[in-house]
Amino acid sequence: MMAAVKRGQVVHVLAGLENGFSTEPSGARPLLNGGGAGVPPLLMLCKQLVAEGKQPAVVMGFGSADEVFFEEVFHQLGVRTSVATLDGSQGVKGTVLDACRCGDSTFFYACGPAPMLRAVCLASDIDGQVSMEERMGCGFGACMGCTIVTLSGPKRVCREGPVFGKEELIW
Ligand code: FES
Predict the structure, then answer these.
(1) Is residue 67 exposed (0-12), middle (13-18) or buried (19+ Cβ within 10 Å)?
(2) Mean of per-residue pLDDT scores for the chain
(3) How many CA atoms lie within 13 A of 170 on its CB side?
(4) What is the DSSP string of the chain?
(5) Whether the CB of 146 sits within 6 Å of ligand 1
(6) Pairwise CA distance, residues 92 & 142, whole Å
(7) Residue 34 bridge partners (DSSP)
(8) What is the mean pLDDT of residues 35-64?
(9) Is the CB of 50 under 6 A from ligand 1?
(10) How confident is the model at residue 50 (pLDDT cuts 50, 70, 90)?
(11) C-beta 163 within 6 A of ligand 1
(12) Burial per residue of 114-147, b for 16 or more beta-carbon CB atoms within 10 angstroms, e otherwise
């Protein structure tokens, strides 16, 4: 539909709601954890971190080799990139936690399925930001369908998130 839009035509778009990752607390060597469909949001973040002179590392998790994408894109940015697949058909067999060789990381970012986010948060002894995944009804704060419980009370992922600090989250 967007491709068919003519120059000058008016369109109504509801997109890009609420917050995103912040590069401010990342330190010099941030670690980006992406799982499946959670990988693409990390690309722009990675480009931004590189532009700021930081040295991000990326670790991506997929089910199997035929699901892997963006590995070359991240390589071209000059960042350390690791891949894990659950069936071991590409990269390290297991999850992002198995593929991570990033003990010197200063901060982490995570985007992906809830079990991955939980595992990354519980395994990390550094601070981080997590893009939470919830089913959404309205997408703009009205239906409360995406509410999660945090240490500072209930929060709507679409309105107060989707990115939350690791220290806010209850697993
Ligand atoms: S999806 Fe409706 S409040 Fe978040």
Answers:
(1) middle
(2) 94
(3) 9
(4) -GGGPPTT-------S-S----SGGG-SSEEEEEEGGGSHHHHHHHHHHHHTT---EEEEEESSGGG--SHHHHHHTT-EEEEEETTSSSSEES-HHHH---TT-SEEEEES-HHHHHHHHHH--S-EEEE-----SSSSSSS-TTEEEETTEEEETTTT-SEEEGGGB--
(5) yes
(6) 42
(7) 60, 111
(8) 96
(9) no
(10) very high
(11) no
(12) eebbebbbeebeeebbbbbbeeeeebeeeeeebb
pLDDT of residue 102: 73
Length of the chain: 171
Q: 25-131 sits in which CATH class? A: alpha beta
Cα(135) to centroid(ligand 1), Å:
8
Decide: 148 in ligand 1 pocket, CB within 6 A.
no
Give the tens place of pLDDT for each residue, 74-90. Answer: 999 999 999 999 999 99
Residues 102-153 pLDDT 10s: 789 999 999 999 999 999 999 999 999 999 999 999 988 999 999 999 999 9
Q: How many angstroms separate the CA atoms of 141 and 119, rounded?
A: 28
Q: Which two tokens stand for residue 22?
A: 């912040």
pTM: 0.91
Dist. CA 133 → ligand 1 center (Å):
12
